[in-house]
Amino acid sequence: MSDQLCITTLRTLAIDAVQAAASGHPGAPMGLAPTAHILWHRFLRYDPADTTWPGRDRFVLSGGHGSALLYALLHLAKVTGPDGREAVTLDDLKNFRQPDSRCPGHPEYGHTPGVEATTGPLGTGLATAVGMAMAARRLATRYDRELFDYDTYALCGDGDLMEGVAAEAASLAGHLGLSNLCWIYDSNRISIEGATDLAFTEDVAARFRAYGWHVIEVPDGNDLTALTKAFEGFRTEAARPTLIVVTTRIGYGAPTKEGTAAAHGEPLGDTEAAAAKRAYGWPEDARFLVPDTAYTHMAAGIAQRGAARRRRWEDRFEQYAAEHPDRAAELLLMREGALPDGWGDGLPSFPADPTGLATRAAAGLALNAAAARIPWLLGGSADLAPSTKTRLTGEADFPEGRNLHYGVREFAAAAVTNGLALCGLRPYWSTFLVFSDFARGALRLSALMGLPTVHVFTHDSLAVGEDGPTHQPIEHLATLRAMPGLVTIRPADANEATEAWRVALTRTDGPTALALTRQALPTLDRKNYAPASGLALGGYVLADPVDRNPDILLIATGSEVHLALEAHHELAAEGIAARVVSLPSWELFERQPREYQEAVLPPAITARVAVELGVTLGWDRYVGRRGTIIGIDDFGASGPMTEVLSRFGFTTDAVVQAAREQLDDLSRTSVPVP
Known about the structure:
Blueprint: H1 2-21, H2 27-43, E1 58-61, H3 67-76, H4 90-94, H5 124-142, E2 152-157, H6 158-162, H7 164-176, E3 181-187, E4 190-191, E5 194-195, H8 204-211, E6 214-218, H9 224-236, E7 242-247, H10 270-280, H11 292-323, H12 325-336, E8 353-358, H13 359-371, E9 377-381, H14 385-388, E10 403-405, H15 410-422, E11 426-432, H16 440-449, E12 454-458, H17 476-481, E13 487-489, H18 494-506, E14 512-515, E15 520-523, E16 540-543, E17 552-556, H19 560-573, E18 578-582, H20 586-590, H21 594-600, E19 608-611, H22 620-623, E20 628-630, H23 641-647, H24 652-669
């Protein structure tokens, strides 16, 4: 009886929250309440008093549109945030989807205590959950299996399983045999347009069995005994991830909307809501009613079990720290989001070399040097590690070691990386820059959550040559720069590549994207040019005229910095004083004080040329309306690198000519001062 009371409370809280907001998705919470209650009350190993306890089970609501269910669970379980305040109060629920509420339309990590990941874009939460399960496997392997035996649950719907990222993630999880991962599939067979058989008629259970998953089917989502047996079946499975297929009725209890698309994405309406409550045996005029018995019953399950388990975990950690103090110190640093003292001391410094090396190669050496001192730094590639240079040498493959193999699954790779970061690890993943398009949804979520992930993109320009337009990124730097919270860095030589990793790993407030070359670039002689440490400021004066103020600014990123330097020297021979500015990160540069920005790019110097192997979009902020931008606003072409670059005007001669024209135009339009 108390179970049913909690279930009805969850259903009616979701109905009332959506009604109050006049917006939201009541149907899924109404159908899924029994599943969610049984999981939280009887199985989830979670202490509502400590939302950051590392040994807790993780619960991810991948179908984030059903957020009212999660908020109702957080309220009923009396989950408390680090500030000692209830994660979700009744007032928060009453202000569902309003600006000042802890109950936004879709769950947001960092906004609502107890929300393990930002979800809403369907399928992405499932892939993030795979990362969480992988994190437990890796942490248990390096540290202690008793400390990291947590399970990860993800609740999903038909829409999640239609998305390609879910297929990518499921395939990877099955390959890895993640027996600590449970996806719960709400099979209500309804989507926004109507019944799912409009577009989705596959045998989901058969698909997951083919992936290598353990599949359990619950024909009736209201059968508490069957649900209990299903979760018990997951807990006893030792070799495979588990998919629990729960057949439910969307909008359960609503007399005219149950089982229809009308219950999916809009309020029930007052009449229908009252009728649903009447069907539940609930006071139909009650709003946000939570009987005391519902609180006490939920607490007798999740809170009592979770508190006892957390105390055992803390006892075990104390014992582990006594036996392995160095490893325990690592775990404490991870929990704080900190890095070991002196972690950057071993980062490489490269001597001047006119031949040099590709920034992908230099970055790979820097990555390995950092990984030698940060044991929880790990990552891999979407089947391109030999090309992206991101394999950690001397390390085994996951889970025994830190090298991950994602296969050709870019979206899943980025989402899994988010899941790893949410569990305290410092992860990276890699692919070619042009394929960042495949991963954009997870990239965006890494920025939205403020995760310190590193997205490594190589083959960063037209200079990939013969691979042609399909592999030559044109608009990609601009699209990365357009994303709030993401810092994009395009280093110009080997030492800037080292500094790029230094910046990426010291960031704690968001992700970093590295854009790296395939082709070798000269390693600059820093005795003649400014130190590469200027990269941390986003932009810096690399070269200046001797004993003169500059007449013109040459601004560039990445490989094009070398064109600017060559132009600088040719112009000097003509008596033209040019300043070269390396601008590897617009975002970091924009964070600097205005005084610094204007010292690097003096407003009085209006003659400016920018050069970058990408679209010209955005460069006007640095060159002004009168400046020249040497870029490409078309797709590339297949051919040898030097021929392609010349064809599209990326030559020293083009930079020199643009500078001359800038100065000629300035002299013609300048007005003499009387």
